[in-house]
Amino acid sequence: RGSSSNSRGALVVLEGLDRCGKTTQSSRLVQYLEGLGHSAELWRFPDRTTSVGQMISSYLSNESQLDDHTIHLLFSANRWEKRSLMETKLKGGTTLILDRYSYSGVAFSCAKGLGFEWCKAPEVGLLTPDLVLYLDISPERAAERGGYGCERYEQIEFQNKVAKCYQLLVDSKWQIIDACRPMEDIEKELQEIVLDCVKRCQNGEPLSHLWS
Ligand code: FDM
């Protein structure tokens, strides 16, 4: 469909605190794009289906204990193991909607007290998203949505720290979305922003690498 030989799919990331609505919104975005005839896939990180992903999953459900640095590197490894497929898909014209990415990696580990630059280092060289949609909601409001589950990071105090760390990562690729509004309103806003991004990438916007 593209108008340029460098036409490619867009790399779009949804980020935010637990229960901000990004999982619902990511799958709706994929449906929307597919409905318009675009090739699109929903990916989520951590990808719990790989062997690294299974170690992460057992850590998150408190079935195993790991040093903070170790789990940080596993989350990063989990993105690296998908990197080449990611590039292949994008170059083949498929848009990828990611439910979490490197920004979660840095924000959650940094909130535990690990150094900001140390946290960013293993992400260097991964693909830079064309767009980061941050679904902005306070931890209190998020917790009201049926309450947090029992996974490791689902506590208001910790989520507050995560929100502060996310702020350190904001750059020109970010769009901050007020996630306290009705779901349909958010959905409409995201559709417009993402479609615009998909069109830019069809016109040959080059891929770049973190962090730039
Ligand atoms: N998380 C997620 C991290 O701590 N680092 C990461 O790199 C990623 C991708 O894992 F609490 C945290 C964020 C969240 C938890 O995420 C699991 P999901 O979206 O609830 O599966």
From TrEMBL:
Main enzyme class: transferase
EC number: 2.7.4.9
Residues in Thymidylate kinase-like domain copies: 14-189
Pathway: Pyrimidine metabolism; dTTP biosynthesis
Keywords: ATP-binding, Kinase, Nucleotide biosynthesis, Nucleotide-binding, Transferase
Record carries keyword ATP-binding: yes
UniProt keyword Ribosomal protein present: no
Family: Belongs to the thymidylate kinase family.
Name of the featured protein: dTMP kinase
Source species of the chain: Citrullus colocynthis
Portion of the parent chain present: 47 to 258 of 259
